[in-house]
Write a structure and sequence with these properties.
Largest sheet: 8 strands, mixed
CATH superfamily of the largest domain: Vaccinia Virus protein VP39
Strand content: 5-15%
Number of strands: 8
Distance between the termini: 45 Å
Oligomer: single chain
Number of domains: 2
Length: about 300
Amino acid sequence: MLEARPVLKWAGGKGQLLDRLQPLFPRRFKRYIEPFAGAGAVFFRLYNLGRIGAYPRLRKLPAILNDFNAELMNVYQVVRDQLDVLLDELARHQAHVGDIDYYYFVRDLDREAGFEQLPAPTRAARTIFLNKTGYNGLYRVNHGGYFNVPLGRHKNPTVLDRPAWKASHQALQCVELMSSDFAQPLRLARAGDFVYIDPPYQPLNRTASFTAYTSRGFGWSEQERLAEWIGRLAARGCYLLINNADVPEIRELYQAVLAQRQVSVSMRSFETARFINRQAEARGGGLELTVWNYQTRWASQTAFM
């Protein structure tokens, strides 16, 4: 059986880091919650490992995926609930792959009156088409909320991959989907739940930031609010696995919040590539901070109270 995989390429996606993250997954957990779903790479890995849905007596669905980006979550919902209609829509787009005028016509639909009233499968197919054929698989909007990524340089992009979409459809049957502020799914977390937190990273410098997944962005005040939630969830008994940029202000923020609640965590720093910049030579790498609050196969590099 074909393994389920992320439905879209997404900035900050963890597909390249799954083999490193997998040893950090908790041995047992009740429910999986991801407040910044993005491509959902960690969810799909857990599903393929048989880790999602291991508690059939749980009254609620065993996983919650949330993202503030409404178009992204619309894709998830349509893949889960209206796959046949979506496949028909994707077949129409596949027939126009490589047509420059068609790409920009589809891209600019969100500037037209009535775009938000289009059927959910039509909007989802548009998002998928743009993701598969736009530059570097990037999802980016301007301050007006309009998608503004140029056409990519793909030789033969595949928009319609029926077996892959069907595998993703099956995986998502066990998922509750939300499109809200990250605090909303975190309010639902209880002791024993596994919460993977992968927010837009704090910029390494003034020119390295990319948080244009929505027109709202994700600034320092949001990082502070998220840190407060991390402290609450750790004290509540949730299993937390967190990724962010390894910059001094993030370490200091997490240390202060968790120390205040007398929570012990482990921290490790890793070198990681950056793939967002349009200029390949400027993508480079950086340090990524990984934080968790439970026992794993890895010994901690740093621990604090």
